[in-house]
Amino acid sequence: MTFQEGRPATLPEDFAAQVKPGSGLAITALVLGVVALLLAALPFVSLIALLLGTAAVVLGIVALARRTAGKGMAITGIVTGSVGLLIAIVVSFMSVITLVLLGSTAGQAASNSDRRMVEETWVNIAPKRYAIRIVVASDIPVTVRYQAGEGAQSAEADGTWYQDFPDSVLALASVNVIPQDFSVVGSFSCEIFVDGVSVAKESGSNFVSCVSLPDLGK
Question: Which of 38, 122, 206, 213 has the fewest Cβ atoms within 10 Å of its own Cβ atom?
Answer without folding.
Answer: 122
